[in-house]
Specification:
Number of domains: 1
Structural class: mainly alpha
Distance between the termini: 52 Å
Strand content: under 5%
Mean pLDDT: 87
Order of helices and strands: HHHHH
Shape: elongated
Radius of gyration: 16 Å
Low-confidence stretches: none
Largest sheet: none
Number of helices: 5
Length: about 100
């Protein structure tokens, strides 16, 4: 039982940390500026965000034999927290920074 809780906490901590770093690096700067961005930049950031999510979960998968907890618990907790922390970025506010007709 303790191993399950510890694995869930470890996965949640990992997913939260990566999710927050991703949010701070990709979206926070856009929200702080009043400048408009091109739609292509928005799509580029969304692609980078998706790639970071895949790499984050791939790292857990590749380390599945080295982690002392149940792999499924860790990867599910990491994925859930990565998703929840990703909700920090209010997409409607980010989209409002996109220039009309720009790409």
């Amino acid at each position: 039982m303790f191993s399950t809780i510890a694995g869930a906490l470890a996965g949640a901590a990992y997913g939260s940390a990566v999710g927050y770093i991703k949010y701070a690096a990709l979206w926070k700067r856009i929200l702080k500026t009043n400048k408009k961005i091109a739609a292509g930049v928005l799509y580029q950031h969304m692609g980078i965000s998706y790639a970071i999510n895949v790499v984050t979960l791939l790292i857990v998968f590749l380390l599945r034999n080295q982690i002392p907890w149940d792999f499924m618990i860790v990867i599910i907790a990491a994925a859930v927290m990565l998703s929840l922390v990703g909700k920090l970025a209010p997409m409607s506010e980010i989209v409002s920074h996109v220039e009309e007709g720009a790409s």
